Design the sequence.
């Protein structure tokens, strides 16, 4: 019987870390966990988003333009299902704003 893997080395920072808490699950990896530790994965993602921000925003805007009818339907349904909660949140925010203005 093989011994279960409890630690793994991140391919970016090269540190040995606990596999269950410091690596995301990844079914395509041989051990079932990502190659990068969570902090390195997060830094990598943030760097990518900073570098490609303009292209990502353009792509999102294009998607919203082409799916306008679906979004309208989704938000109308969401409002109907959550109008009491949304209304209460708005009342709380309004009261808080008024309270802060009065100080």
Sequence:
């Amino acid at each position: 019987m093989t011994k279960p893997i409890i630690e793994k080395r991140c391919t970016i920072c090269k540190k040995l870390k606990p596999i269950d808490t410091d690596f995301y699950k990844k079914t395509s990896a041989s051990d079932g966990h990502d190659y990068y530790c969570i902090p390195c994965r997060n830094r990598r993602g943030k760097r990518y988003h900073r570098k490609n921000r303009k292209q990502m925003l353009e792509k999102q805007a294009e998607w919203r333009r082409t799916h306008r009818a679906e979004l309208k339907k989704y938000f109308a349904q969401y409002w109907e299902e959550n109008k009491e909660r949304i209304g209460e949140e708005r009342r709380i925010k309004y009261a808080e704003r008024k309270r802060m203005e009065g100080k």
The first helix runs from residue 19 to 22. The mean pLDDT is 94. The beta strands are 7-9, 16-18. The radius of gyration is 23 Å.
